[in-house]
Amino acid sequence: MDQILLARLMDIGEKMLVAGAEVNRVEDTLSRMAKAYDVSRVDVFTITSSIVVTVIANDGVPMTQTRRILAYQTDLDKLSGLNELARTIAQNKPDASYIEQEMNRLEQKAKYPAWTQFVIYGGIAAVFTLFFGGTAQDALASGLLGMVLKWLVRLFQGLENNAVIIHVVCPFLVGLLAVGMIRWGLGENLEWILIGNIMLLIPGVSLTNSIRDIISGDTMAGLLRMSEAILISLSIAIGFGLASLVLGGIIL
Hints:
This protein has 2 domains: 3-108, no CATH class; 114-246, no CATH class. 69% of the residues lie in helices and 8% in strands. The protein has 10 helices and 3 strands; from the N terminus they run ααβββαααααααα. The protein has helices at residues 3-19, 23-35, 76-92, 96-108, 114-131, 136-159, 163-183, 190-201, 204-215, 219-246; strands at 41-47, 50-56, 62-68. Strand 1 (41-47) and strand 2 form a beta hairpin. Helix 6 (136-159) packs parallel to helix 8.
């Protein structure tokens, strides 16, 4: 194994973590792929923000590479493709060029167009509003706000890499718009309109993975991920709370 091959394996581990894989899966996948290349020892350390891999070849020469993880974007379809690629690598031991080619193929795979994502966001918000007791008019207003929320998230992700800021500003703006829609007669119950959009932002995958990490024995990684999920949830509450303060408590 050389540095280039190790870098390609690190690419897979990094993209798996970004796509929503739990820490234990990333560590196990990287270990299995590296051991397939007949190295004497592999040590992998992964937390939510970093991956460190040290490989000791049969000649005793160690190689270490580190990856810093700055942002996440859950993509279970990509994660499934990365898992399949990892299994192929562990079985067939291809060279670095093949791995790079397959990684590029996964990156170029067709994704949902923007308009489809907007419709999905709106539909989910509307369904949650109905689920929690809102009327059909509330669901319509919530669906429209859900599409606006998706646009705001995309906009601020391009401008700002801080998840806390994004999850404060976007709920704040959506809270203001929700009150405006009520005043314009586009909705009836503000609380059910808001809950439909709050559910779009709740970091459910991060919270679930944090519990799985803790159960798997990766306590530090699990606590870090759980702390991040709690912080994002508090940011959402702060965003809607600020909208309430600006409007004199009308949201409450």
